[in-house]
Design a protein that fits this description.
Blueprint lengths: L21 H44 L3 H4 L2 H11 L7 E10 L4 E2 L11 E13 L12 E10 L3
Antiparallel strand pairs: 1-2, 1-3, 3-4
Length: 157
């Protein structure tokens, strides 16, 4: 037997030591894990974007309502401003309320006779909410997420 006819594999002599397909299997497993990580990152990015939009919509509505006493009572205009700012998020809901307190800290119902020793301070509050269903579902996470936004601002006197 000549020396050239003897074959030696990396794993030694014998059967089952051929590793020619090992790299392909490793790439396939790594690619699947990478795709799962990328899908998770995309889902987190979508949720974060929508959360910023929902909060920004609440702020836009409250900024409109806090301009003056006239805009503070325009509840439909406040809600329209919030919905216009959050137009990138489908299914967004906005509710607006106005409430008052006396400048000395006592409660007020927003009527002119409430604060005899002080003056009435008006506030506008906007709540926004939406339920987001991500485009793909990752088994460890819920199927949908509820996002809310809240903004309160004192009305300009």
């Amino acid at each position: 037997m000549k020396l050239q006819e003897v074959k030696m594999w990396r794993g030694g002599w014998g059967f089952g030591t051929d590793d020619s397909g090992q790299a392909l299997v490793e790439v396939a497993i790594s690619a699947m894990l990478l795709v799962l990580v990328l899908m998770g990152m995309c889902e987190c990015g979508i949720l974060e974007y929508d959360a910023i939009e929902v909060t920004s919509a609440a702020r836009a509505g409250v900024q409109y309502g806090a301009q003056s006493r006239t805009t503070a009572v325009d509840i439909s205009g406040i809600q329209a401003a919030a919905l216009a700012d959050g137009s990138n998020v489908s299914g967004l809901k906005a509710t607006a309320t106005r409430f008052c307190s006396c400048s000395d800290g006592t409660a007020s119902t927003c009527s002119s006779g409430d604060c005899s020793a002080s003056h009435i301070v008006q506030y506008v509050q906007v709540n926004t909410a939406v339920t987001i269903t991500p485009p793909f579902h990752i088994p460890a996470l819920p199927q949908s997420f509820n996002l809310t936004g809240l903004a309160v601002m004192r009305v300009g006197q």
